[in-house]
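In this section we turn from sequence analysis to structure. A common task in structural bioinformatics is to predict how a protein folds when a small molecule is present, because the ligand can shape the pocket around it. The inputs are simple: the amino acid sequence and a SMILES string for the ligand, here adenosine-5'-triphosphate. Study the lines below before reading on.
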Amino acid sequence: MEDENMIQPRASTRSRIPQAGLREMTSATTNSRSGILPPGSIANKATSVSRTNCALPIPAPRDPLTSIPATRPKATNQQEVKRPGSISRPSAGAPNLHTRGNSYSSSTMSRMGSTTTRSTNPSLSSSISYGNRPASSISRPQSSIGSRRPNGTSISRPATSLDTHAEDAGTILGKRKGMEQLSFSFSHISCPPGSFQKPPANGVMDRVSRPPSTPGFEDQSLGLSQCISRMRVDDSRETSSSRGSGASDPNPLIPWRSQSLSVTPSFSPSKVTRIPSMPPRKTPRRPPVPLFLSKESSVTTFDNKLGAEWDQESREKAIDEFFTSFVARVNQQGQESFGLKETVEVYKSRIAELEKSRDGLNETNITLRVETEGLKNQLNAAEDALKEARRDHEIALGDLERRQRVEMESIQQSSRQDHDVLHQRHQDEIQDLKRKFASEIEDHKAAKVRELGQLTSQSALETQRSTIELQSKERELASLRNEVEGMKAEVDRERKMVHDLRQNLDMASANSVTLESTIRALKARIEFLEGGREEQSQAFERCNQEMMDALVETEATKEKLRREETLRRKLHNQVQELKGNIRVFCRVRPSLHSEPASELTDMQYPDQFDDAKEINILGPEEKSSLGNVSRKNNNFSFDRVFNPSTQNAEVFDEISQLVQSALDGYNVCIFCYGQTGSGKTYTMSSQDGMIPRAVHQIYQTAQGLEEKGWRYTMAGNFVEVYNENLNDLLGNPDELDKKKHEIRHDMQRGKTIITDINTVQLDSPEMVETILQNAAANRSVAATKANERSSRSHSVFILKLTGENHITGERSEGTLNLVDLAGSERLSHSGATGERLKETQNINRSLSSLGDVIAALGQGKDGGHIPYRNSKVCFLLGSLQAFLALTLDQLTYLLQFSLGGNSKTLMFVMVSPLQAHMSETLTSLKFATKVHNTHIGTAKRQARVRDS
Ligand SMILES: Nc1ncnc2c1ncn2[C@@H]1O[C@H](COP(=O)(O)OP(=O)(O)OP(=O)(O)O)[C@@H](O)[C@H]1O
């Protein structure tokens, strides 16, 4: 609280002295922005002080002597003149000056108005009258500036109140110790000559100034000191001149220039000392003025009255007025100076206050330190007490823990006992439940066993009953059979007997006795049979034995059948080999509706109702030079020739044995060769073509073989060789011609693997239709016309057949390849260009190389050169031996294992019936004849190619 009391007043003190005021004071000291001129310019300083004490708005800076506001009437000076003794408050502005001392800093600039008002006196005659001021009035109270001055009474101003400003200004009010040594350097005041003459009533002037009409006097811009300096200069000049030459001043208008201004003590309580000399100012040369006035002197008065030197009254009046105004001005300056001093005093008092507050703060600080020490002691005591309390608390805690531990142990013990009791009870319950459940289970088990026994006995009874029924049925059947047989025999016998009886009718009657005896014998036999049960049971046993023998015989027969199936396979293979491992069928397609009969080629089938192996193609009529008309007959012979009326079913009958070979574990290759539009696709891939029929047959055969222990799985691929590239027709159509597939051969197992290819498991015969549709769809995506694409590429349908006999442990792996070759038309006839030309070249290269390879193979030279490398198709018909050689032909490479060793090949050569295609037809047939004449692995067969 004490501290607060110390601080609060300080705050209020601060608030009373705004920083702005302090700044302005500082700036005033350094002569910047304050409007205070450098030393020697009292007017500005006064202005500054006036600003300090006046709250009026700040006017624009102006010359204090030239600016004469209208608000300041001259009457003020006149009023002051009337009261010459009251110098302390010469004007109405004075109270303002004093009462605003406290707000000095904030009102410094606003004092301009009042100052200006004061300086509105037209002349400096009203500015110096300091000497008239009584000593008491000069000793201005310190509080005259501040509001703290009590009751507005004057308090003696400290002796140093003017020191600072007097020294700072370096001009006026220079001497210390009050007004006694006050000397003025009124450099800023233009003082009219002669205005320093002491009024008669108040003092004596030692010099009499000249009237104000002199030019120098009118120069109001000159300061008083300058005037005085001039006076000195002139004075000395005049003195010297008067001394030297004795001549008088040529200018009688400025006699005051040679005077030095001094105020006698009687004139002012302060001692006016001689004003320090100022630098001389150059003035125009004037005529000398007489030093002393005489009656003869002609002097111009202030009123510009010439010759009024002796008008003492008016001169005194003028001087008096001037002096009054001068005193007022000096007064004003003094007051302003007081203002400044008071400001300084305010700051000094402020400093004192601050020091006081600092002392207070120091005291407070000491008090606080003492208090802090006390508090520290209290804190130490409190800490000690806290430690004590903590110790007590720890002891109490320890006791509590011990107590709780004991309690806990007792609780644990009791709970353990409870737990043991509960556990024991629980165990007892469990034992009871176990016993209960065991007895229930036993009961249940016994019931189930009983039920089982009943069921077993029932089933045994049922079985026995059914066995008995079966036996009775069998017996009935046997007896019925016997009866039937007996009836038959009896009928026969009866017939015979009737016949005999008819023949022996006579004998019957004769032998009636014999018959009767026979009847009796029969009756005796019946009786015997009825009585011979033992014999019947023995007969039943014999029958049973016979049945068991029959079963054994059946098993033996089945085993024999399986052996015969294996033998059949071997024999079938041998038969196929005997037929030739490469067989060639020729098929002529029928003419279409769009093809008129006149455009058809004349073809004959000489043995169509016999072996159906030959075909004659008659050329166009040719006239010889002798006029004979003849037609060229091209006769070809193959393994089978199908005329246009042959249906797919009949064609398939011929190849079904090859399909059977695939099931038996052989690699079979069936391909169609021929020009575009000759019916290859129709034969191979149409709805009732070879592919669907082959798959159907395989299914049927596989099902039939199941009862012989065979289980078959079928997996299908469909690939295309287009421009010597391999494509997957069951894959993504977008990858056609882009994705690369490789053909890899497993030489040891004789298997062909194609990389990255889709394999479809054929679980049903219908799946093959899906495969064919997908392949056709993919081809249609790859080409604008599906037919075009199919014409320009080889397609291969690969069916892998894997069979296992779970009885015999046999295993078979066969492959059926159904190949639809590209159109075989000649390059020269196709007229193809660009991409088509490239395709045709590829196709022809494959096919012609195929012929070469076949021809080479046909020569049958083991180890002889086979031109496999010439074409991929070479692999198609080459032996296993041949396929070991590297080749670029994808197609033949692909079919490598289907053409050699255990492979069987069937080639369809397709023929178009059109005359326009005759040339291509003949070429195809000649090529097929080459193939037909090739024999791989079996006895070479001869075939004829007859030109007649
Ligand atoms: N045996 C036939 N019975 C009825 N029509 C047939 C027979 N053979 C072919 N055709 C028809 O002849 C036309 C051409 O047959 P296909 O498309 O099979 O010839 P292609 O040799 O496969 O031609 P490409 O080489 O262009 O594929 C088809 O319209 C087809 O239906």
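Residues 1-284, 868-890, 937-948 have pLDDT under 50 and may be disordered. As an exercise, try to locate the residues that line the adenosine-5'-triphosphate site and compare them with your own expectations.
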